[in-house]
User: Which sequence fits this backbone?
């Protein structure tokens, strides 16, 4: 929790000061009453002591004052709120390594199915674009609310070629420029970028534009593909993908099976349609102060027969 006017919290110092004044006044009143009435007559003249119960209303009042002072400092909490005009670019690697079968039935098929699940989860008002890439990025769909059109485009992705992740991210930034609405990128890749622009350099450009990148490293370290020269290992580059997410303020996922991939994409589909904003909760503190004041007064009335 944070405060819009934190300097007003200095007023809380009044609470212990008022407590000290109350204790001093209470002791003086008790001494004065005992001084002017003979000991033998005190039971008949002075009211019967109610002990600690007489302090309940004052305790309630002091607590209410503390809550009101806190409310004046405008306490705020961060909440996730829906963003109807958000934009999301979904980048899917289609290099030859996506033919590896360590993810059932193979990486490229699992990626297509997960992207379809993602599009079903994203709220209707969110504009979604799709880019697929190997050594060359290809824009399948510019950001649009026609999610079915994007789904149809994603179904056409096939695997071949090498990997140029930096160029793909640069193409996504190009698609997202010229608009001030919140934006994010979901990047799925299963290998190391070997061509084009430096991935981390483009990630820093995304950070400057305040566009988080959520990375999904697909595959396992034991994944292989068969080429003309034999069998080659194609482990995902999880280290670089993690760096991209950290630089841009996104989140990194390392996925080893299709079920987990689909679960992550469904989670991202709902998450990327919200943004975190400060919400003033001062009215709650003010309402709490009123409740505490009333409760203290009623408790005092019930325990001692008087309000103060």
Assistant:
């Amino acid at each position: 929790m944070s405060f819009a006017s934190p300097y007003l919290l200095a007023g809380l110092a009044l609470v212990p000061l008022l407590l000290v004044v109350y204790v001093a006044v209470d002791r003086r009143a008790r001494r004065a009453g005992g001084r002017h009435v003979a000991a033998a007559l005190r039971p008949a003249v002075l009211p019967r002591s109610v002990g600690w119960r007489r302090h309940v209303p004052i305790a309630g009042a002091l607590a209410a004052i503390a809550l009101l002072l806190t409310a004046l400092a405008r306490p705020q909490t961060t909440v996730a709120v829906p963003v109807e005009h958000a934009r999301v670019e979904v980048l899917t690697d289609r290099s030859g390594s996506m033919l590896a079968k360590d993810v059932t039935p193979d990486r490229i098929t699992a990626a297509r199915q997960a992207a379809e699940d993602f599009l079903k989860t994203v709220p209707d008002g969110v504009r979604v674009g799709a880019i697929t890439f190997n050594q060359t990025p290809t824009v399948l769909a510019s950001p649009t609310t026609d999610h079915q059109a994007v789904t149809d485009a994603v179904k056409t992705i096939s695997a071949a070629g090498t990997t140029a992740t930096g160029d793909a991210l640069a193409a996504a930034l190009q698609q997202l420029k010229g608009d001030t609405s919140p934006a994010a990128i979901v990047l799925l890749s299963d290998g190391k970028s070997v061509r084009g622009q430096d991935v981390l350099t483009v990630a820093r450009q995304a950070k400057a534009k305040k566009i988080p990148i959520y990375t999904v490293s697909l595959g396992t370290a034991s994944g292989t593909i068969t080429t003309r020269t034999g069998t080659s290992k194609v482990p995902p580059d999880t280290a670089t993908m993690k760096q991209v997410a950290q630089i841009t303020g996104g989140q990194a996922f390392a996925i080893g099976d299709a079920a987990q991939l689909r679960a992550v994409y469904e989670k991202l589909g709902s998450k990327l349609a919200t943004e975190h904003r400060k919400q003033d909760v001062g009215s709650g503190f003010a309402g709490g102060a009123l409740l505490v004041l009333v409760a203290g007064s009623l408790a005092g009335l019930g325990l001692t027969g008087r309000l103060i």
